[in-house]
Amino acid sequence: MSREVNDYIERQKSPQKEICQRLRSIILKTYPGIKEEMKLGVPWYEGRYYIVALKAYVNLGFSLKGLSNKEVRLFQGGGKTMKHVKIRSLEEIDEKKIVGLLKVVKEASNSYRKEETLRQDG
Length: 122
What we know:
The protein is of the alpha+beta class.
């Protein structure tokens, strides 16, 4: 676990602090050994996921690379490469749903990377 990410989370106010802790825990439990780093001032996980504490909620962000249009609609936001789910309280955290979203994004990202490699090699 990254010390910088620990520091970021510890600086947050409640309930954002506890929400960030829980989301981080879910990510690390789902993907033990995932690369965790601070990027653009917030915790990032292998360029696929991010956690950002905002004034009234926390966003858990997801890369859109390789996702179908149907899968993209699972998320909120107007971004072209990243979208998110908004979480306002610990009670809103549905671990099973979040794990499902994490896996959809990782599988899509892996497929996208394989296709890119094949195109470059071909």
